[in-house]
Structures are given as C-alpha cells and as structure tokens.
Prior knowledge:
By secondary structure, the chain is an alpha+beta fold. It folds into two domains: 5-145, eubacterium ventriosum atcc domain (eubacterium ventriosum atcc fold); 149-246, no CATH class. It is built from nine helices and eleven strands. Strand 10 (219-220) and strand 11 (223-224) form a beta hairpin. Helix 3 packs antiparallel against helix 4. The two termini are 27 Å apart. 12% of the residues are buried. The model is unreliable at 54-98 and 100-104 (pLDDT under 50).
Amino acid sequence: MADTVCYIKxxxxxxxxxxxxxxxxxxxxxxxxxLVAAKVKSIKVHKFRSTxxxxxxxxxxxxxxxxxxxxxxxTEKSVGTGGVNSAQKSGRKAKAGEKKNPYEEKRxxxxxxxxxxxxxxxxxxxTVESLGETEVLIxxxxxxxxxxxxxxxxAFFIALISFCGTAFTxxxxxxxxxxxxxxxxxxxxxxxxxPEGVSALEIAYSVGLSLGIIVFFNHVGGRRLTKDxxxxxxxxxxxxxxxxxxxxxxxxxEGRTIDVx
Length: 261
C-alpha cells in the first residue's frame, strides 16, 4: 500500500443540495486500489449548518465528542471548586471567541491542502497527487423540483422585459442615426422619387435584422443552429469565473478558507 498513488482533481465550483459534502461530490478520484478509492470518496469534507452554529469540517463526529468532553470536564472542574459562575463566564468567553461566518449557511471555500490532509489521515500510506484546482468553492442551494405557476409567471415577465427593452434600444438607435432619412435618401437615389408608405427597403432591412439576430445568438427558440456556444453563454461563463475568483480571494483575505493549520 506504500506505493499506492491517489489522484484527485477538484472542481472550481460545486453546488450541492445536501448538508454533508463528501470528497466524491467536489471532484474526481482515481486510484488503482479500489478499497482506497472507496475510502477517499467517502471522506466528509464539510458539513453545512444553520445560522449561528459552528462549521463542521473533516472528522465531524470526533470534533463534536471532543468538544462535548472538554465542555463537560471544564464544567465539572468548575463545579468541583465551587466556581459555577466561572464556568458560565468561560462558556460565554468561548461563545464570544467563535468567529461568525456570513457565508457559513450556504457557501465555503476549501483548500486542496486540507483535502490532502484529510486523505492522509484516512489512508496514511497513500501518496496524493492533485491535478485540479487549488481551492474549491462549495455552495449549498435549495432547488424546488416542482415548477409551479410562480416560475412560469416569472419567466413571462422576464421575457416581456427583455423584448420591450430590446425593441426600445433598437428604436432609440435608429432614431439617433436617422434611419428613416437614410432610407428616404436611398430610395430617391435609386428610384428617383420619394417613397410612399413603407418601402421594400425598410421591409428587407427588418427581415435582415431579425435573421442577423437569430444567427448571432445561434438559436431559434430551443433549437441551436450550430454546436458552438452562444455569445451569451460565453459571457456568462466569463462572469461565473470572475465571481468564483472574487469569492475565493475574499474568503482567503478574511481568513475564512478551510485550510491546514
């Protein structure tokens, strides 16, 4: 087992609906020894708790037991010496010394060094090789699997606002450049007279504008024209990457990253 190598590849951002987060949930594990791979995948990395409770990382059960034992021992010593008030004061100091994490409920950042430490504690004779990210951002989300009328109404209003906003933007741009005067001038040059009503040039321009938007965004309804990602998807991926980097950097600056001591 001394020559066993375990390869881990952590993801940058992981979303979960469960309170308990295991190593298999945040990345990929590859090991020739199936038993070692199973042990590594079952390692608990983090446990999300409700507001006001402490974060549980690594060996949660032993931490809770040690905390309870330490509290009980200190209380017994205080009572034995007649210092009930001192026990209460020490308990208050311990609570006051706990660091509140504003992202404790739904988000945490775990360092790869902490992951390696947990693996080495579980399998001491295994060599760990990390091939992925140096930090992983874990987010707990609440997903409603039942799509009701609220979601349909929300989608309708978003589509309506997007349509009206896009139409207003196009009309404002055409008004700024004087597109009507341009069409009139082109009609006079080509046909020798001013247009009466809607001209063929305006109809062709409207059709071409619609087709250009469809080709640019690369989909019609739910169907794609090509397999390439759309410009919106590309920008959204860039935005998600920037947000993840900002969250990781903020957690590191504030000392909220779960790392080795």
